[in-house]
Each structure stands twice: as structure tokens, then as C-alpha cells.
Write a structure and sequence with these properties.
The chain has one domain. The chain is about 75% helix and about 0% strand. The longest helix is centred in the C-terminal third of the chain and has 40 residues.
Length: about 150
Amino acid sequence: MENTRRQERSALGLPVLALVGLALLAAPRVVLHDLDVIQEGTFPNALFVFVPPVAWIAVVVLRRVPNPFLTLLVIGAIYGVLLALGHQLLWDVSFPDGTPRLGGNLADVPAATSAVVVRSFAAVGSVFTGVLVGAVSGLVAWGISKVVSRR
């Protein structure tokens, strides 16, 4: 039985399903923001921004995962992929007046090319944002874990 439990946990100290579940805690903000249900700078938005990473930190610290930074980096990367998927699926809703286009020297490229480039950069930016949130959360969790382990 104990061997089975160890196999269920990933090398990151949590089962893969838990990693995905924690990343999913941050997904509602993507949908609510893209649907214009919540706006930047409001208290509800702040809750949707900060509560998921705080929950991530709490879980990895309380579960004493072996490498909190790496675990949260992975959770952040999963979140980034979810963020990218959410933005891509809600793209037309987010831009009802038309998709953003390239400008400057690239203003004359075909609309389809412009859309592919803009959406690709948005997807990469989303994944990068998720990884960054995971890295910052991981640093905080790592620091807390070091302080807690000294006690």
C-alpha cells in the first residue's frame, strides 16, 4: 500500500492530479476577465489574482514537498498553458471590435498572418506569465519552508 502511494506522487512531492488541480484554481480569473465580468484594479480581481498562488504556497509548505520552488514552477507552467488556452478560446469575445493586428512596418501583412503572429505571441506570453507566477510563488514557498524547517 505504501509503495502504491509513493508511485501516485510525482517526483515533485504531489500527485500529478494535485498539480493540475492547483493550477486550475487560477483558471476562473482568465474566464471572468476575458468575459469582462471582473476588471483590473478591483477587490474581486485581486482575490482571483492572489488567492490561488497563496493556496499553492500553503499546500507545498504544509505537505513539505522536497523542492517547493520546482513544484510551484511546474504548477505555474500548467497554469500558463491553461491561461493560454483560455485566452485563445475566448479570443473573439475579448476583442469584439476585431482582433488586434500588427502595426508599423508589418501593418500590410495579410490578416491571417497577423492573427497567427499576434495569437502566438499572446500564447507564449500567457505561458511565460504562468511560469513567472510559479517562480515567484516557489521562491516564497522555498523561503517559508527553510524558516519552518529550522524550527
